[in-house]
Write a structure and sequence with these properties.
Blueprint lengths: L1 E6 L2 E3 L5 E9 L1 E12 L6 E7 L4 E3 L7 E6 L4 E6 L8 E11 L5 E4 L3 E5 L2
Parallel strand pairs: 2-11
Antiparallel strand pairs: 1-3, 3-8, 4-5, 4-9, 5-6, 7-8, 9-10, 9-11
Length: about 120
């Protein structure tokens, strides 16, 4: 099985930056895709960004130009660099990975979520 452990959330002022990390561990054979989602109070869960094993990236329109997703393949870790943060970015951010684990078919795995709060 696979575990995703997130870190980097916190409180930041508007215009500030945060860097989220999500490390995958366990009986990993290969990781196909990693991404980030967020859910703000009173809102549905929103897809934020995705990166594939080949390095292709996609972003939600709401974060394009401000957020950057990247990976360190040697560490099985995905990052989300968040710049020019706005109050509307406040949400619980969750890491997702589509992984083939040893002895299992490919499946989605989720991290525990980390709170990002943007306020003056």
């Amino acid at each position: 099985q696979v575990q995703l452990v997130e870190s980097g959330g916190g409180l930041v002022q508007p215009g500030g930056s945060l860097r989220l990390s999500c490390a995958a561990s366990g009986s990993i054979f290969s990781i196909y895709t990693m991404g980030w989602y967020r859910q703000a109070p009173g809102k549905q869960r929103e897809w934020v960004a995705t990166i594939t094993s080949g390095g292709s990236t996609n972003y939600a329109d709401s974060v394009k130009g401000r957020f950057t997703i990247s990976t360190d393949n040697a560490k099985n870790t995905v990052y989300l660099q968040m710049n020019s943060l706005k109050p509307e970015d406040t949400a619980v951010y969750c890491c997702n990975a589509y992984v083939r684990a040893r002895g299992h078919p490919p499946d989605d795995y989720w991290g525990q979520g980390t709170q990002v709060t943007v306020s003056a």
